[in-house]
Amino acid sequence: MQPLVGMDLASLREALGPDQPAFRAKQIYEAIYRQQASDPIQISTLPLEMRRDLAGRHSIGLPEIAKVYQSADGTRRYLLRLEDGRTVETVLMPEGERDTICISTQVGCPVDCKFCMTALLGLDRSLTAGEIVGQVLLVARDNQLRRDGGRLNIVMMGQGEPLLNLPNVVKATRILLDPAGFALSPRRITVSTAGIVPKIAELGAEPVRPKLAVSLNASTEETRRDLMPITRKYPLKDLMAACKAYPLRPWEKLTFEYVLLAGVNDSDADARRVVKLLANLNCKVNLIALNPGPEIPFKTPSPERVDSFQRIVRRSLPCFVRKPRGLDIYAACGQLKSSAP
Ligand code: SAH
């Protein structure tokens, strides 16, 4: 059975064949992404015979819930089973009137960051556009999330390096932002990259795209190279040049994420170097104190250290400290490794 989720209008038209009028594809498209039908047989805008025929050949194709872990802070981590039996994770973080869904773009991750548990999985495979969109549809349905009034945010910050799966990330984003599809505002989707320099320009050239966050994580080339081996291929100065050249929309700022590791990259001097590096960019900084894990050879800095770092950066740039969510269920940044508890 071929999944419908992930198909755009053009591929739906093709799947229906030349005998069907174009509006049929539109009806199916809206049923998948707007009404979020769970079975083709429910698409009541279609004649019954057509629904039966469609249901015989296609499923909606959402991932299956293998397990849900519930955190004391309200965060929910979904372990999802894909069509081929592989598993991947999606995290829902409710906060007041706002919900954020953190989705994965690959099974595992090929970027070998030394502080991240997903790195230990290695890369299994990239997700299809349907598997990326499917995570959002599934979690939205399972929690009856509303998406009006900017309540729902999507961050592509789960397993994987999104810019190493750019065609599927872009295709999924188009569906999520399409007013006839899932209809999110482009301000509500952010993609995060470890810094795949040539792909940053490629993303910038896309007319429909998410906001961009860049994982900086160090203030010098040497430290960054030690923490994120990928930077050997894409040095910090090239990364900064790509960020400088990135075509921001009028309402947009770049985000830089910075994981603070005690005694490694969290000194006041580091903070001053971060300010210098980012001086000419329209950006904000999100600090993340390390979320520790059994196989991670780093320590979390004290709250006072984080505070001091933030105060220095904040003098020059907007700078926030990201609150860890779902630490008790291995749902926080850098903790996704497809496993218990
Ligand atoms: N590969 C992409 C998407 C992952 S986003 C990227 O690197 O940006 C995950 C964010 O969590 C990144 O900013 C990463 O630097 C951060 N992170 C990874 N491991 C972490 C950990 N153990 N504690 C805190 N943040 C971590």
Category by helix and strand content: alpha/beta
Q: Note the main sheet.
A: 10 strands, mixed
Low-confidence stretches: none
If you average the pLDDT, what whole number results? 96
Strand order of the largest sheet: 3-4-5-6-9-10-11-12-13-14
- Report the count of strand segments: 14
How far is it from the N-terminal to the C-terminal residue, by CA? 33 Å
Could you say which small molecules are bound to this protein? S-adenosyl-L-homocysteine
Query: In one word, what is the shape?
Result: globular
Proportion of residues in β-strands = 15-25%
Characteristic key phrases:
ten-stranded mixed beta sheet, 30% helix, 341 residues, 10 helices, 14 strands, binds S-adenosyl-L-homocysteine, alpha/beta
Concise synopsis of the structure shown:
This protein is of the alpha/beta class. The protein contains 10 helices and 14 strands. The model has no long low-confidence stretch (mean pLDDT 96).
Overview of this protein structure:
With about 350 residues, the chain is of the alpha/beta class. The chain has ten helices and 14 strands. It has a ten-stranded mixed beta sheet, with helices on one face. Helix 1 (about 10-15) crosses helix 2 (about 20-35) and helix 9 (about 270-275) runs parallel beside helix 10 (about 305-315). The radius of gyration is 21 Å and the shape is globular. The two termini are about 35 Å apart. The model has no long low-confidence stretch (mean pLDDT about 95). The site of S-adenosyl-L-homocysteine (SAH) has 19 residues, from strand 10 and strand 12.
